[in-house]
């Protein structure tokens, strides 16, 4: 595995233009080693193009970068330590899953004796001898992950690994990615399923129109905004009284279904919650909920790309 | 590049492929040999792969592989199509990209795949030539053809020369097909352009400009595999 101090990958000013269209526009990102990094952005944001440049599949128009300490201009220096699933899995339909992996292991000079273990690891078990064309979409994705794991790579780059999977498949893929991360390797995974990324990733890179919007720890992004404090009285009829009480105390309050949402506006959440609780108790009201509303990744994402209001339930 | 060649052989040399390729080669040998022997005329003439074999030519030292050489002169376009289909499908299916994730040298991957497929084609040609020779031996008595010269050193040389000529032609067609596959990266598009170019376009131009025989790839390769330009 790579040294802890060396980022698993970093790019500076990475740009890719296709004629007049700019797919990636001066992107600056850095992903530390041994994290599961989510790569998030709307369709056409430049995620796949960026991943393709990291893997040497697409030549950048401008910019520099390193992967596992090697410049991206020399992908041969690091591709042996990188496993990738880009766009959709691509295999030979007439070959079995195991035969496909043997072909790719030969090209990558990887040990083919690890293939049965990889089938077990990705949950394909006994299906290795079945032809690829008979695989379901979920099985194809799993085979793609197995191929990416050939050679026990230090860095995994997975582009939409849950694409097309049913809910059970998504959950299993999430568990698989978590399991892979627990082995100490770095994983860069792009997905449209933001709840999935929120659960799996400890690092996030958000991009839009080829530019970086955010990069850093997932918790830091989500904790940076608290949408409000939900307050619910025991009796529904007490809600107007509670609202008047809170407003009289100088709080901005919104009614949201059967609860009141108090604007925290940068206040100390614990102190605010305690003061509300004390005031309610003094007024003879019993609260059954006093709960900070955390922003979800989806809310933050939508607010940052300009399509949402950033308020969570 | 050897890893790409080995991977390609690993992909191609499976029991099913070997059986299909073997049967196809055998069928080719049977059809070519039966056709040549049944159509051979008594009239003598210069032995040529461009025309029907004469009984006289079949009785010479190169007679044992004459049917193979004549039959193979028609496989060039087939090889062309096969290589376009095999290579262009790698691009459209994404497997070429998947290979590049393990070996980023595009030219090496392309050449490695080309060589790998050519190795299999060379083996199939060798099998077809051997099968054609055996079938020729079986059919020779029916046309009163003496087979003694076939087993001479000159016969061996003729056989090797026929094999080399056919393999060179096949290699040329393979490179032509691979080039189109790499340029167009789509099976239907590459096939369409290949058919249009090597078929009507070259022949129409050559009908009005005889010098095209020496420059157009389809014409050159057809001449090579037939042992000379068409008359």
Would you give an account of this structure?
The complex is a heterodimer of chains A (313) and B (231). Chain A has 313 residues and is of the alpha/beta class. Chain A has helices spanning 47-54, 97-107, 115-121, 137-148, 167-181, 194-200, 218-223, 239-248, 269-282, 297-304; strands at residues 9-18, 21-31, 36-40, 62-67, 70-71, 82-85, 155-159, 186-190, 203-208, 211-217, 226-233, 253-256, 259-262, 287-294. In chain A, helix 3 (115-121) packs across helix 4 (137-148). With 231 residues, chain B is mainly α. Chain B is 74% helix and 0% strand. Chain B has helices spanning 2-12, 15-39, 55-59, 66-72, 76-93, 95-100, 106-139, 153-184, 187-208, 217-226. The model of chain B has no long low-confidence stretch (mean pLDDT 87). Chains A and B meet through helix 2 of A and helix 1 and helix 6 of B.
Task: List descriptors.
heterodimer; A: 313 residues; alpha/beta; six-stranded mixed β-sheet; four-stranded antiparallel β-sheet; 14 strands; 31% helix; 27% strand; elongated; B: 231 residues; mainly alpha; 10 helices; 74% helix; globular
Low-confidence stretches of chain B: none
Q: N-to-C terminal Cα separation of chain B, in Å?
A: 41 Å
- Give the strand order, joined by hyphens, for the main sheet of chain A: 6-7-8-3-9-10
Helix and strand pattern of chain B? HHHHHHHHHH
Portion in helices of chain B: over 70%
| Major β-sheet profile of chain A | 6 strands, mixed
Order of helices and strands of chain A: EEEHEEEHHHEHEHEEHEHEEHEH
Please give the count of helices of chain B.
10
Radius of gyration of chain B: 19 Å
Which chains have the largest interface? A-B, 26 and 19 residues
Shape of chain B: globular
The percent range for helix content of chain A is 25-40%
The radius of gyration over CA of chain A amounts to 24 Å
Counting helices, strands and paired strands, the structural category of chain B is mainly alpha
**What's the mean pLDDT score of chain A?**
87
pLDDT < 50 stretches of chain A: 308-313
In oligomeric terms, what are we looking at?
heterodimer
Overall form of chain A: elongated
Count of DSSP helices of chain A?
A: 10
């Amino acid at each position: 595995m790579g040294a802890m101090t060396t980022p698993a990958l970093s790019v500076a000013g990475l740009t890719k233009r296709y004629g007049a269209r700019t797919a990636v526009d001066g992107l600056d990102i850095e992903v530390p080693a041994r994290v599961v990094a989510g790569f998030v952005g709307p369709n056409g944001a430049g995620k796949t193009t960026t991943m393709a440049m990291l893997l040497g599949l697409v030549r950048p128009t401008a910019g520099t970068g390193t992967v596992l300490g090697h410049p991206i201009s020399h992908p041969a220096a690091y591709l042996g330590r990188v496993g990738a699933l880009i766009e959709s899995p691509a295999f030979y339909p007439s070959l079995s899953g195991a035969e496909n992996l043997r072909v790719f292991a030969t090209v990558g000079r990887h040990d083919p004796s690890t293939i049965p273990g990889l089938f077990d690891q990705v949950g394909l078990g006994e299906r290795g001898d079945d032809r690829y064309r008979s695989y379901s979409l979920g099985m194809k994705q799993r085979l793609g992950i197995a191929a990416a794991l050939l050679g026990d790579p230090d860095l995994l780059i997975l582009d939409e690994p849950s694409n097309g999977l049913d809910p059970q498949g998504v959950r299993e893929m999430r568990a698989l990615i978590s399991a892979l991360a627990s082995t100490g390797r770095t994983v860069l995974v792009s997905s449209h399923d933001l709840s999935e990324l929120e659960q799996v990733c400890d690092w996030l890179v958000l991009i839009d129109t080829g530019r970086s919007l955010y990069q850093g720890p997932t918790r830091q992004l989500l904790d940076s905004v608290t949408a409000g404090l939900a307050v619910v009285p025991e009796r529904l009829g007490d809600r107007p009284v509670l609202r008047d009480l809170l407003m009289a105390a100088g709080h901005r309050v919104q009614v949201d279904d059967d609860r009141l949402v108090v604007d925290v506006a940068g206040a100390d959440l614990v102190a605010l919650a305690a003061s509300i609780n004390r005031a309610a108790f003094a007024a003879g009201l019993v609260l059954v909920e006093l709960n900070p509303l955390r922003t979800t990744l989806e809310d933050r994402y939508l607010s940052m790309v300009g399509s949402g209001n950033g308020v969570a339930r | 590049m050897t890893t790409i060649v080995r991977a390609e052989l690993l992909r191609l040399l499976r029991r099913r492929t070997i059986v299909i390729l073997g049967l196809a080669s055998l069928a080719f040998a049977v059809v070519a040999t039966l056709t040549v022997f049944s159509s051979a005329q008594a009239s003598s003439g210069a032995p040529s792969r461009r025309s029907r074999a004469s009984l006289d030519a079949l009785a010479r030292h190169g007679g044992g592989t004459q049917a193979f050489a004549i039959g193979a002169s028609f496989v060039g376009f087939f090889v062309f199509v096969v290589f376009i289909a095999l290579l262009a499908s790698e691009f459209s299916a994404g497997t070429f990209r998947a290979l590049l994730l393990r070996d980023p040298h595009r030219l090496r991957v392309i050449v490695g795949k080309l060589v790998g497929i050519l190795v299999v084609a060379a083996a199939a040609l060798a099998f077809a030539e051997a099968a054609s020779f055996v079938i020729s031996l079986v059919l020779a008595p029916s046309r009163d053809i003496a087979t003694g010269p076939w087993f001479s050193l000159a016969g061996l040389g003729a056989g090797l020369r026929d094999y080399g000529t056919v393999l060179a032609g096949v290699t040329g067609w393979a490179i032509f097909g691979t080039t189109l596959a790499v340029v167009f990266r789509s099976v239907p598009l590459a096939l369409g352009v290949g058919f249009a170019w090597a078929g009507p376009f070259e022949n129409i131009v050559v009908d009005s400009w005889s010098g095209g025989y020496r420059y157009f790839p389809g014409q050159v390769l057809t001449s090579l595999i037939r042992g000379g330009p068409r008359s």
